[in-house]
């Protein structure tokens, strides 16, 4: 099972991605993985795992908490989709699976938008102007 995870991580690492940090849970922690990330020039965001008779230091525990804050933002989305029945997809073929996943993501986003509107949160509020607005302002000047 462990070799399957290693192969999956290797297939996900995309050097054309603009983000240079790799955030992952404790299951992917190994010295070999850390060296691989360093060789690829990627920032190691893999949480540290305690081993038998060797608990995590306070520094490692705080590091894990810092990484968990970032990962939680993504994990909540997956948990929300799972609660809507998205844990297993029973379709035949990649195209149908892609459509099913797209529909689940769309439903999750609509559910989140409804929650924002119910709470009175402006879901489309942006603190910075969009690139289009900046270009229009520059063109007018």
Topology summary:
Layout: H1 2-12, E1 21-24, H2 31-40, E2 43-46, H3 58-86, H4 94-119, H5 131-140
Parallel strand pairs: 1-2
Number of DSSP E strands: 2
**Major sheet characteristics:** 2 strands, parallel
The poorly predicted ranges are none
- Mean of residue pLDDT values: 83
Q: Globular, elongated, flat, extended or rod-shaped: what is the shape?
A: extended
* Class by SSE composition: mainly alpha
How much β-strand is present in the residues?
5-15%
The ordered H/E elements are: HEHEHHH
Rg, nearest Å: 20 Å
Spatial separation of the terminal alpha carbons: 60 Å
Helix content: 55-70%
Number of helices: 5
Biggest sheet: strand arrangement: 1-2
Mind explaining what this structure looks like?
- The chain is mainly alpha-helical and 141 residues long.
- The protein contains five helices and two strands, in the order αβαβααα.
- Helix 2 links the parallel strand 1 and strand 2 (43-46).
- The protein is extended, with a radius of gyration of 20 Å.
Summarize the structure.
The chain is mostly helical and 141 residues long.
């Amino acid at each position: 099972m462990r070799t399957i995870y290693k192969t999956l991580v290797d297939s996900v690492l995309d050097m054309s991605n603009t983000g240079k940090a790799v955030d992952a849970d404790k299951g992917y922690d190994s010295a070999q993985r850390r060296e691989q990330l360093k060789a690829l020039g990627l920032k190691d965001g893999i949480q540290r795992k305690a081993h038998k008779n060797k608990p995590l230091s306070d520094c490692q525990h705080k590091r894990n908490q810092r990484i968990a804050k970032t990962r939680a933002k993504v994990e909540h989305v997956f948990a929300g989709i799972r609660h809507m029945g998205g844990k297993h997809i029973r379709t035949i073929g990649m195209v149908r699976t892609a459509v099913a996943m797209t529909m689940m993501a769309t439903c999750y986003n609509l559910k989140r938008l409804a929650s924002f509107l119910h709470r009175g949160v402006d879901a489309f509020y942006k603190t910075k102007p969009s690139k289009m607005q900046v270009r229009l302002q520059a063109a007018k000047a």
